[in-house]
Amino acid sequence: MKKIAVVTSGGDAPGMNAAVRAVVRSALHEGIEVFGSVRGYNGLIHDELIPMTLRTVSDIIHRGGTVLYTARSPEFRTEEGMQKAVDTCRRHGIDGVIVIGGDGSFRGARDLTARGIPCIAIPGTIDNDIGCCDETIGYDTATNTVVEMVDRLRDTSQSHDRCSVVEVMGRHAGWLAMNAGIAVGATSILVPEVEYDFQRDVVERMKEIAKTGKQHFIIIVAEGVGHVDELAKKIEEATGVEARATVLGHVQRGGTPSARDRILASRMGHYAVHLLEEGKSERVVAIRNSVLCDYDITEALEMKKPFDMDAFRMAAEISI
Questions:
Q1: 10 Å Cβ neighbour count for 45?
Q2: Do 37 and 43 form a contact (C-beta atoms < 8 A)?
């Protein structure tokens, strides 16, 4: 293993830079040359590789986003695009690639491996929807960002006796919504994993809480549930409480990564380099019960993440 490349792919997540830093410095420590692929798999396709040094990754551990940039790459899904990426790796003598991203990025890593370029994948996504992994890079920071934003909304909701209906990201996963909802003491949390009844889970809860004297409410809605504008209108019609919808959007992806994400990313980046050094490929780095481990990419993609129903029920019980 003389040369490797590092790729950040798909949606950006706070902590990606910490992972890149760990990959670069761990590899250089072992005498391995490192290249960074600019804008994800597009960098491999269009031969946009830049040499990475100790100083290249100085002072990036605290920065959100990714210094290598990222992009979706429809071209990489084609046989021609993948072959261009392989040709770029061959031309530069790349012996292995470390890919930081979500499940779509993992599929790309698997495709590269199948074409003779050993790959290791690192889970970087705020959605926390990787089945083999308890926690993904970026998830903790995104949760903290949601909490900060909703705490600000609560101030104005309380001032106006209002209901704030807040949509958070997560694609088809409700982890971000659930744990942010617990942290802000949301009246109701709506996630795609659990079917909800509008009357029972929203309207009746608000009415019961109103009887105790509370006149402002927070409803957290996962992106996979959606329709927050429509939901806010229905709430106002059913309860008489003024309701406003807020879509937090991409603010959840940005910002300084938390200490937890920086540490997780550093550990995963270091672990990934040593997997390549050991001759392993087509693996996903994961953390289970605070212990780093790795899985076959295909196995990891097929794993379903069981939703934490105990935490979800607990949130409902203590939000009255």
A1: 23
A2: yes
The predicted structure's pLDDT at residue 320: 81
| Closest-CA residue to 301 (of 104, 126, 56, 62) | 104
pLDDT band, residue 319 (cuts 50/70/90): confident
Measured distance CA(23)–CA(265) in Å, rounded? 9
Catalytic residue of the set 127, 129, 140, 261: 127
Paired tokens of 90: 């061959």
- 288 token code pair: 């289970």
3-state class of 205 per DSSP?
A: helix
Q: DSSP secondary structure string, 78-105?
A: SHHHHHHHHHHHHHHT--EEEEEESHHH
How far is 15 from 128, CA to CA, in rounded Å? 13
Average pLDDT, the chain: 96
Q: What is the CA radius of gyration of the chain?
A: 22
Tell me the pLDDT tens digit for each residue of 136-194.
999 999 999 999 999 999 999 999 999 999 999 998 999 999 999 999 999 999 999 99
Tokens of 304: 């379903």
Give the whole-angstrom CA distance, residue 270 versus residue 262: 12
103 is catalytic: no
How far apart, in whole angstroms, are the C-alpha atoms of residue 284 and residue 104?
A: 13
Whole-angstrom distance, CA of residue 8 vs CA of residue 38: 8
pLDDT computed for residue 72 by the predictor = 85
What pTM does this model have?
A: 0.95
User: Under a CB-based contact definition with an 8 Å cutoff, are residues 166 and 248 in contact?
Assistant: yes
